[in-house]
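LOG
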Amino acid sequence: MDSILSPTTFQLRRPLLSPFPPSKLLSINRLNKNSRHCVHKAVFGSQPLRVSVTSAPSAEASNKTSSSIPSEMKAWTYTEYGGVEVMKLESGVAVPQVTEDQVLIKVAAAALNPVDFKRRLGKFKATDSPLPTIPGYDVAGVVVKVGSQVKDLKEGDEVYGDISEKALDGPKQFGSLAEYTAVEEKLLALKPKNLDFVQAAALPLAIETAYEGLERAGFSEGKSILVLGGAGGVGSLVIQLAKQVFGASKVAATSSTGKLEFIKSLGADLAIDYTKENFEDLPEKFDVVYDAVGQCDKAVKVVKEGGSVVVLTGAVTPPGFRFVVTSTGETLKKLNPYLESGKVKALVDPKGPFPFDKVSEAFSYLETNRATGKVVVYPIP
């Protein structure tokens, strides 16, 4: 399968199941040992998505909760795969319940990733969670409720994270493009104190993909790297992490003409204009090539013998390897000091942030592949 991103995972522990009206009936019966959910009704089409849920009490999951949390919320949803036109902003969507290891977040900002629209297009429907879907992986917001087994986070904490452990394998049915989302504590970290919610939302999936990909490639101090797609959400962070965290001896990166100065400002020692130069013709070779654009067949021509090519998308040519991130809050915690010191910066596309009612426009822009940094949605009511 063509890699769909810079990912994350999730084992769908407690899907909220929503039957369609007779014309779109979807029958799914699943039960989770920690919580039991009975869906009474869901109305789609011309009516808002309305999902009412009753949850059988569980001794294991007695939740500490705030009385101010509503039972319904606004959320972006889709009930079928397709283009941006299948997305609808609905009201009356049930606020998700939390299991004992989860927290409920009042979403302040969310960011979009290529995996979001590739998921909506049905690129990995065989491993997707059931429709209907609330999209969104990246989140920044405030904890308003905690499960009984949550150890460190508490109500009022400002957090950020990628809410699905694996993006392609059972990602969360109810994502971050909503007023509230339920997330496992292990996927979250406290928001860096110097970042606002927009900046924090721009980071999780991309920075975890960048960092863990470099680790998997065995990148370390004194090594050289070429980043393909240096101005994108992942590539811009690979440049920064390679230089500021890993201690690269040389960082080269590709971009279009108008973004050459931008990637230099991030730490690229050599900025390559892919509209005028063929990077595969460079006389020098690199210890690692990080391919965020799908050009592995060319990338392998500029990697040193014994080196590695990290491949996020497209066909893989040895010694390239497909990389799919496993999301964890531990990576974010490890990188927080670099973010708080300003050595590594969150990069938000200048056309944003997009307001919550303009999510379709935000996706249309993301799908042009011309974004610089991350496309962020803010504020979320």
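LOG (cont.) second protein
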Amino acid sequence: MLWVARLSGLCSLAMVMVVLSPSIQSFPPAEAIRSSHYLRIPAAAGGYNHHLAAASGDAESLVFRRAPRFHNAAECEPPSANGTSVCDPSLVHIAITLDEEYLRGSIAVVHSVLTHARCPENVFFHLLLSEPGLESVVRSAFPGLRFKAYYFDPDRVRALISTSVRQALEQPLNYARNYLGDILERCVNRVIYLDSDLVVVDDIGKLWRTRLGSRAVGAPEYCHANFTKYFTDRFWSDHRLAATFAGRRPCYFNTGVMVLDLVRWRRAGYTRRIERWMEVQKSGAAPSGAGRIYELGSLPPFLLVFAGHVAPIEHRWNQHGLGGDNVRGSCRDLHPGHVSLLHWSGSGKPWVRLDSNRPCPLDHLWAPYDLYGPADA
């Protein structure tokens, strides 16, 4: 029966490749990988080097490949002569976090965006990091990349974080997205936030041009999901708390892919609104957990503030849950419809499963954007 399971997995992967084929044929990532050069992790990022060496036993074999340069299509608006200016109105702004554990994933995110962008020279990355030096890996892997690194102080949010169903969800850097309106330059009026466990397989300019109307947040919504499960019985039994959603039609949305209108965000003080809900959670989180109003880390405060007030974006821009949610070893299929972004939200990450030779079928779609590999490859 094992051969039947394997055949089923291969058929699933083949069907996904057919769905994705227009994007992949237009910008073949395999060609980009083959033309890459190899580079060793700079000494400044030695922490990550040591972390990976613990798994392989050979730090000298650990390298990232250097991606080729990506150039604009003829119809793209030329970027300003001042290549370092973050205020250039022609730029597409993307914010991602950068840490040791997810560095490999973050590099793949950048690579996938550049591979499929019609105007890659007009993409500007805002890297949020809590450890100095990791930005040098990005600089080495992507010569000529437009980006700026911002230090996010973990102490800014640490006291507000309560325990979650997964320890990974408790990391302070997960909450950096709450502070983009404060961290980024005031001239940055809009930004796309992307998690570090996804790849983009379409032109990011399409997502950038999404109309948000009067909303500060745009994201794919999933109104069929059981919204009540994102909060505890204590929350729903307290009429004052539950009344938060009165007059709204709240739907679940995944905060790993969002388009943010930072002008509206700053004007409405949304960062402070999110913090206030974290304070409510923290003040009621007794040792027994009886006073908690949610269990899922950084997501519920976003839902409390924005659910029911989100500009809907096509589901193709967040095919999430490919990491199996919080169930280890589970493989997920894609949602029906077109695919522009694959998201391995959940506990299973594609690089971990690929390295352990126990991948899910869809993990092979992440592999072409992976720039991590042995020195003798």
